[in-house]
Amino acid sequence: MKRIWMYLKMYKKECVLAPLFKMLEATFELFVPLVVSAIIDVGIAGADKGYIVKMCFVLVALAIIGLTSSITAQYFAAKAAVGCSTQMRHHLFKHIQSLSFTEMDTIGTSTLITRMTSDINQVQNGVNLVLRLFLRSPFIVFGAMIMAFTIDVKAALVFVGAIPILAVIVFGIMLSTRPLYKKVQAGLDKILGITRENLTGVRVIRAFNKENEEVYRFKKSNEELNHLQKFVGKISGLMNPLTYAVVNISIILLIWIGAVRVNSGTLTQGQVVALYNYMSQILVELIKLANLVINITKALACANRIDGVFAVKSSMADGKLDISETGKNTQVPAVEFKNVCLKYAGGGEEALTDINFSVMPGETVGVIGGTGSGKSSLVNMIARFYDATEGEVKINGRNVKEYNIESLRNHVAVVMQKALLFKGSIRDNMKWGKKDATDDEIMEALDISQSREFVEKKDGKLDAFIDQGGKNLSGGQRQRLTIARAMVRKPDILILDDSASALDFATDAALRKAIRGMKSSPTLFIVSQRAASLMHADKIIVLDDGKVAGIGTHDELLAGCEVYQEIYYSQFKKEAM
Ligand SMILES: Nc1ncnc2c1ncn2[C@@H]1O[C@H](COP(=O)(O)OP(=O)(O)OP(=O)(O)O)[C@@H](O)[C@H]1O
């Protein structure tokens, strides 16, 4: 609530004008039954055609003024609601960007997307409805009752009896359905999550013939939601018959009392019709009010969930040191791990235990080990995607935590296992590496990553269009372009995290040779399960179940490291086959 108000404060004028125009509309609406009553009592009763036409014009004028007020109110309410949600979305996105991978892992991508999209939309709807209805509906309810009293106190007593009964029914149903609506919202979130997972993983699902299982999984969740919605719908469905029953009984009473009083000459026929219209207006507004309260409840629940994300603070404090101020001394290791341990949030075993090694500037380091042995975890700590839970990761002799994260990540380029490109031209994608990269710099990076040939064959060359995620490229082409994107930056430390796995051996070898041939060759980490990709490295780190099983050159490890021997001979036997 506090947060919504924080954003709404920027739209104070709109927040005042929207309800005011709605009240203006309501005021004119309250006059309509009186005009209709006058048409009956004066125009029709007196057969005065001129009067009837005149009053019809008054009705049209009231409708036009009401409509104009309503549109104006809608404009201001929408401006405030959309403005509030835009600001909130912007800040939430910025906040999410500031979170470290640890928090992102804990919250989950799917949840974050739901907060950014449907939750903020719900808040926007809630704000819009509140601005339009929170004054208007009570105003009409009480206004109609007062108008009824001005017509006839005795007949208006029917209103005094009916309104509380109607309020109890409407709000009673609303209160009983409120927790159920929360469950519906959770069910919707689940469906959204399944849909998102399925759409992003559609290729894998088809490759594994999992369509039927996925359709079944979706159907199950959808049916659960359907049952819940039907149940809530049935309770909410009681609202109309019950309220209409009360209103109709009240109307019968009104007409009965009215008829008696018309006979006695205390009331006119038109006044009875006016009383009837006021009763109808009250009913409509009470139903609107109930919907408003349901929407407020949903909006507040969503706002709380959004607040929950805002409440998560990054566990990664930014340092002050600019990395360009270090690294002048070539005798200091470019990367050093000192007794490093890593345990991911959410418990479980340590992913890395007591890792110690150092790498001098310009050296090539291979990281090898079985699946889940901790290779990616190890290199991810160099660019501070995760912080060591124990020990120290140092770059140029200083703890990575001392560096300003932006300068650190400009210095360390990571090519991730999953080759991900973004919608846009090849040039746009390359400029992710360096904003102001010239075409020459891009071509140089394409040369190193062995991508020039296929890029030059594409229509438009650097302007060739890449679909979202790089779907219109082959796996190997995607990998080469992600490597080129990292090379454009000319990083001091380059990490290839199993990022050449889709390349053939000759291209893989040509890539490594080109990197080593660069004028200022980076300190290079090659993570791979293929011994052939890193056997020429200056140093190979062999990981086994999160621990270092051996560090040394290929020859040293082949002579003395059992895990390395196992990996190497298993592959060379395989490759020889
Ligand atoms: N974000 C994470 N949250 C929790 N646990 C994780 C996370 N990332 C990795 N792990 C766990 O840490 C261990 C090491 O994983 P890591 O990805 O570093 O292995 P790897 O050697 O790179 O494997 P692969 O070769 O299959 O990519 C695994 O047990 C994995 O389940």
Automatic annotation (TrEMBL):
Give the source's domain of life in one word: Bacteria
- ABC transporter domain location is 335-570
Keyword Nucleotide-binding, does the record have it?
A: yes
The parts of the chain that form a coiled coil are none
| Membrane-crossing residue ranges in chain numbering | 20-40, 52-78, 129-149, 155-175, 238-259
The keyword Nucleotide-binding is annotated on this UniProt entry: yes
GO terms of molecular function: ATP binding
What residue stretches are annotated with the ABC transmembrane type-1 domain? 16-298
In what way does this protein cross or attach to the membrane? Answer: Multi-pass membrane protein
Protein name, UniProt field: ABC transporter ATP-binding protein
The lineage is: Bacteria, Bacillati, Bacillota, Clostridia, Lachnospirales
